[in-house]
Amino acid sequence: VLVSRIRNFSIIAHIDHGKSTLADRLLQETGTVAAREMKQQFLDNMELERERGITIKLQAARMNYTAQDGEQYVLNLIDTPGHVDFSYEVSRSLVACEGALLVVDASQGVEAQTLANVYLALEHNLEIIPVLNKIDLPGAEPERVKAEIEEIIGLDCSNAILASAKEGIGVHEILESIVHLVPPPQETVEKPLRALIFDSYYDSYRGVIVYFRVMDGNVKKGDRVRLMATGKEYEIDELGVLSPTQVPLDELHAGEVGYLAASIKAVADARVGDTITLAAQPASEPLPGYTEAKPMVFCGLFPTDADQFGDLREALERLKLNDAALSYEPETSSAMGFGFRCGFLGLLHMEIVQERLEREYDLDLIVTAPSVVYRVTTVKGEVLNIDNPSTLMPPQEREKVEEPYVQVDMITPEEFVGPLMELCQTRRGIFKDMRYLAQGRTTLIYELPLAEVVTDFFDQLKSRSRGYASMEYQMIGYREDNLVRLDIMINNDPVDALVMIVHRDKAYNVGRALVEKLKELIPRHQFKVPIQAAIGSRIIASEHIPALRKDVLAKCYGGDISRKKKLLQEQAKGKKRMKSIGTVEVPQSAFMAVLRLD
Ligand code: GTP
To answer: Cα-atom radius of gyration of the chain, to the nearest Å?
Structure first.
């Protein structure tokens, strides 16, 4: 293919604004996928993704398109995940493109997530083509949304395309705009090979399948390649394009997008953002922008049944093959027994992993509340990263505790500004900026401790704005604060899995609320169960769960054996997702109680 006939682009859109529907249309219109073989939304093919209606893994599709000028073009669509947890992956797939379609729902408007990705695209000098989607809806207001895009992003919308991905309106125009507005890749075939990895996944037969964009030079089947971040070398067994299923080819040139298999064992060996070069004639410099995935949120995973520890380890090993950002190490808890401390990019990433462990590996797990990574300086001057609150040393051994802060950008209809400001205030937020946008919408910017965001901030934002507000956050660094360790005792046993690090000013209220919540969540036992919260040796809240008066079997007076069995079975069922702490049965919900205190 002539480089001048290649167009590489991605689609930037807020969740539900119609990215997948439009991608499907483009594949259909170019004859890449016939309508009848079209699964419901080809690009989002993970089951979990479809269920949650979000895009997690990115993929790519190559389309052949004969434009109105009579020439044949190759259009490579590179899909991007739609969630803040995966913004690094988004940035790498944008770097692989020269242009992007900015899809905005004409009945809604610009959202925080759209903004973040548009800024990423502008940073990398991508040509952006605004597309106002869903103009078939009676509530569509394309003119208002155009004005909004111009005002917020400063993007000229005079040539914005009015489209309906659902009805197929504007699709032809979009294809023509891609051909005419998105610049072709640069002609750098003569340079040493540099290919950018923008996605990879593990295949049990061929090893890791790497999706990449050739930035410079060319690459052939059988080539010995080196991954520049790890220094490891592999021989390419298979190479090809995605149209959108894998079609093997012998060679790919600068500007092209494709996949390769080279018996790579785990995706961690072919990380997104890494540069592929030739072992024989390596490039002198890797492509810029490679970063190691850094887990931001940690939690403990414990099997309810200690016998499942080995299964859990195996499942984590398997998931890790396909998820470079997941980290885990064994953890021993005096309350919970053996389990793993796991690190995730964010809350969504955490939920996805948990769900897969339970669903695909059939594990019954207790998950402890998420924690951020604290930076603790000891009196000896050592600096430690603490991702497990129960390992925080007593106050006399530490000099200071710092916690990660994020900048949170929200976009909301004006009427919810009050409730959202109140939310941020109760979460120790620092007000930074507020701007009125077109048509009664407002951007609100706050700095917040990440710890206050990983608890149910997003759910709160949604419920306080009746679903209308959107948000996005980015790390801005560590700050010192007056943070203390809050311990919880159940039946006089300290429970390490319930230790929290909280701000001193909030400790009393959090302790009280947590103790009350635990009283609600932990079932009654044959004996009285005291529950207490403490800072150091000082008890700040105390409650107890009264003893049960009768035992369950006492009801089966007369000894009807089948009825007795049934009762025992019901009890056994109810025991799932319970953990015995000492002699007290504690349900999963208790470990997450801290997320539901408001
Ligand atoms: P994520 O994958 O979650 O990022 O969402 P998405 O942006 O891919 O949105 P998707 O294509 O799944 O569309 C969301 C919803 O909007 C679906 O119910 C679509 O049927 C609907 N939709 C998409 N395009 C149009 C359109 O042009 N008009 C109308 N009326 N509905 C549309």
So the answer is: 27
